[in-house]
Amino acid sequence: MRVEPEVQDWLDSGGWPLHVIGQRMIERAQHEPACSYRWCIHDVVRGTRHAFNEHARVPASSTRKLYILVAVLLLIEHGELALSDSIVVDNQKAGVQTCGGLWLLDSPRVFTVAELLKLMMGLSDNVATFYLVDLLGLERLNAWSTVLGLSGTWHLSAIPSQALTADHPLSAVNTTTASDLVTALSILVEGANSRLPAGGAFICRELCEFGLNCMRAQQDTTAIRSWLTDMDQVGDKHGIGYRNYNNVGYLAHGGAVRIIFSIIVDDLHCIESPMPAFAHARDFIALFSRLLDNYTRLEYPSKEL
User: Which of 17, 207, 226, 230 lies at 20 to 30 Å from 289 by C-alpha?
Assistant: First the structure.
């Protein structure tokens, strides 16, 4: 990412309050108004939020794998599955897939549920995703969306269609919102701190910690992680679609999660050449994430937060 003087000044500021970061990024979004921006930022420690178009539906792309992770952990919590359960994986059944590594298998192999979850979250493996969704069922996934209050999230298919164009309608894909992504990740963060209330959405501490660790294993370093100085303090899931670039993640500091966030840039097909649309989205998310990381390192956040 080319460091403009304005951006360098921002990075040298040492950290801003959350509402200032949000306002700066709204101003930044106006530099390329052809596409659409959505985000939801939640300060876990102070209980404050900054959001922008957070309820607008967008293609979920691979960020919806967070919902699959949470749904599988819920089934394990309810005793219907175990992380150690074995599944025979034949990549031919998942169709033509090139995301991840299981599509390279030359014969069926046995994997545990835990291994498939790690592959899905760390490598965004679509073969692993296919088998986990097959285990859950789309009907149950959508039912969990209702239970968890994810009103803008809809699971249409197990894996993406290969026959879409960049201007596809939302009705052709799995959808979500920035707010829903933060809500789902909050379940894991709250559960890891033993703060989830008893009930249908309860997941024990150990399983929530497993889920957060799966996100910490993310191998993509092109957006959220590209400008961070400490990779051990972040867990995330990215999603790149035909027209959108999504990220959902958390930032930790001092051994505890401080920030949960989702940042989405949609309608990238509306950007006119020669601007490289996906590079623009990647750099926008990278800058936003670095500013949030700087915020988590503020020794004395301002009182108005």
Answer: 207
